[in-house]
Specification:
Chain B: This is Cobalt transport protein CbiN. Chain B: The chain crosses the membrane at residues 71-90. Chain B: Part of the energy-coupling factor (ECF) transporter complex CbiMNOQ involved in cobalt import. The complex is a heterodimer of chains A (231) and B (116). Chain A has nine helices and two strands. By secondary structure, chain A is an all-alpha fold. Chain B is mostly helical. The mean pLDDT of chain B is 90. Classes of the chains: A mainly alpha (231), B mainly alpha (116). At the A-B interface, helix 2, strand 1, strand 2, helix 4 and helix 7 of A face helix 1, strand 1, helix 2 and helix 3 of B. Strand 2 of chain A pairs parallel with strand 1 of chain B.
Chain lengths: 231, 116
């Protein structure tokens, strides 16, 4: 769930927009570079964007008695690195702001920062970290997607607490309040997102192993590795 | 069902359980509006903290009713699901085509008396 239209004071809205803009520009460059260098990536890029589209349209009930939706940004961040996901995530946010009155144009900068920048980078960081320790691929994918999802909503809570500190308890009080609304609600949803991302990654391992190897996600195994080694 | 398909089905089942359990266990009971969106809860938290705050911008287009809104959300999910299905379908078709061609080539080689 994104910050609704007009619900960030103008100064904050502009500041988050300024903070997000360089990431989006850099991401757009990374995306065009990827498509030019590997035209065969286009299909998988579309599939990653589509995954975000599906997941961020699903409002799912949570343990807090409220509803929220996953982000679907972990998959693209792991496959194509976070800058590319920044573009795909921002497109999704723009679609929702323009057609669904969900999120908003004035809050696009802040929402892009949480869902398309902070989330993907956090998920990618966790994924890379676990990979260093030779954790099985599907476990790294689960935690990568889990943190991409959860961190998004932690950042949303921080953004709102910065804009609306509690009159008596200040920033920490407001953070606890918004964190209770967004971050706690998100925990089971982040688990769901982790599981769904693992599912899609398993399907990709079956159908597009060579793409995953090229992108550095999967290693060559079995017969393919032997032919490669023989060369 | 292969082991692979079983694991995939289990993953989907777990996701479904995670979504259904909060409702089945009545975790929204006693709320003013059970299972409302977290974003609208945040809006009311903002008006609690700063009662004078007025949103200074409104959406350019707003779906005229909750029904139309849910239709648009369904459309978003359908678009995404369609592209994903296209991707996996295309991949599967290519793989099968490749396997088919290999089989044919092997057959031709055999009929010529060569080693496949």
């Amino acid at each position: 769930m994104h910050i609704a239209e007009g619900f960030l004071p103008p100064l904050h809205a502009v500041a988050w927009g300024v903070a997000s803009a360089p990431f989006v520009v850099h991401g757009a460059r990374a995306l065009t570079r990827e498509v030019k260098a590997n035209p065969e990536s286009t299909l998988l890029l579309g599939a990653s964007g589509a995954f975000t589209f599906v997941l961020s349209a699903l409002k799912i009930p949570s343990v807090t008695g409220s509803c929220s939706h996953p982000t679907g940004t972990g998959l693209g961040a792991i496959l194509f690195r976070p800058p590319v996901m920044t573009v795909l995530g921002t497109i999704t946010l723009l679609f929702q702001a323009l057609l669904l009155a969900h999120g908003g144009l004035t809050t696009l900068g802040a929402n892009a920062f949480s869902m398309a920048i902070a989330g993907p980078w956090a998920g990618y960081g966790v994924y890379r970290l676990l990979k260093q320790f030779d954790v099985p691929l599907m476990v790294t994918v689960f935690f990568g997607a889990f943190f991409a999802d959860l961190v998004t909503y932690c950042v949303t809570s921080v953004q709102l607490a910065l804009a609306f500190p509690d009159p008596s308890s200040g920033f920490p009080g407001a953070l606890a309040k918004f964190g209770g609304i967004f971050a706690v609600t998100q925990i089971p949803l982040a688990v769901s997102e982790g599981l769904l991302t693992v599912l899609v990654m398993r399907l990709l391992m079956q159908s597009s192993k060579s793409d995953l190897v090229r992108l550095g996600v999967a290693k060559l195994t079995g017969g393919a590795a032997r032919t490669e080694a023989a060369r | 069902m292969s082991r692979n398909a079983k694991i995939n089905a289990l993953l989907l089942l777990l996701v479904a359980a995670l979504a259904v359990l909060p409702v089945a266990l009545g975790m929204g009971d006693g709320k003013e509006e059970p299972f409302a969106g977290a974003d609208s809860q945040a809006e009311s938290a903002i008006t609690q903290i700063e009662p004078d705050y007025k949103p200074w911008f409104s959406p350019l287009y707003e779906p005229p009713s909750a029904e139309v809104e849910s239709a648009l959300f369904a459309l978003q999910a359908a678009l995404g699901a369609g592209v994903l299905a296209y991707y996996f379908g295309l991949r599967k078709g290519r793989r099968q085509g490749l396997a088919h061609n290999r089989g044919e080539q092997a057959g031709v080689a055999r009929s010529r008396g060569e080693q496949p």
